[in-house]
């Protein structure tokens, strides 16, 4: 029979019983990869298909009320003089703030398979109310706008810099900005932490769910052969190829393009990082490999591997299931763990700047 029969995991039988609803919600994305990899397509046709997927996914997600948010235009990244302004949206808590002064802020970077940006699908108002802190998100450029790396990272950096420069106006501490993302939003959160390290900046922390970490089909990444409903190894390979553009298959891909390319030394001085991986996800092994580099580099890091879950299924369940539903305990546990990690980053500075000096001394 062989192991190949265990690679397709889109059936709910692979899932935790409480995630059956989430499995049913997730479509099958294999067709997405097949279309984008079709060599008969022009770049413009791929671009059009990605735009269609972006619009379709926006309809698929539960809508969020964005009536009490403020929209800003952030100047583009300094590395890209001709970059257009970046749309940044900030939600303030409806009730009383959790912190009267020096409030943390969460920057949610939307996902989108590295080829699209599922704009305004981030639950910024929900999170602002739940955690009592301002929450921001952005719209970054992708294949839909005809760009490749480094444009998405540039836009994320521009959004981060905007929050820092307007911290007083927004009522936040510029030293307490936490990066968060799901799927390719997780990838960009990790990538941004590497970009900011190059600038001498360490964010307060980084919380990522099922991040797409590496562009390479390395033999140690056995999970990369898994194709579950909604996302699989073929999708990761396709999106990486289109995201990198001219850098595709290059030995010079930097960690800020794909964090899996980082060495242990590249990880020294990164922010505290909390990774949530799913057992039936193609990125599972990449997540563990990256976490091992973080711990070897002395970074405060945690990794959680959730059984019976696939790409985005648990985060979807956590967002759409009623918190009072007695059958949603698994999703509630996921939410509780994330809430604890955010609280730790809110209240404790878990960064370890001394590790940089100690690492350099060890090499002398």
UniProtKB/TrEMBL annotation:
Sequence ranges assigned to domain Alpha/beta hydrolase fold-3 in this UniProt record: 122-312
Top-rank lineage group of the source organism: Bacteria
Alphabetically ordered keywords of this record: Hydrolase
GO molecular function, one term: hydrolase activity
Keyword RNA-binding applies: no
InterPro entries hit by this protein: AB_hydrolase_3 (IPR013094), AB_hydrolase_fold (IPR029058), GDXG_lipolytic_enzyme (IPR050300)
Name of protein: Hydrolase, alpha/beta domain protein
Species in which this protein is naturally found: Catonella morbi ATCC 51271
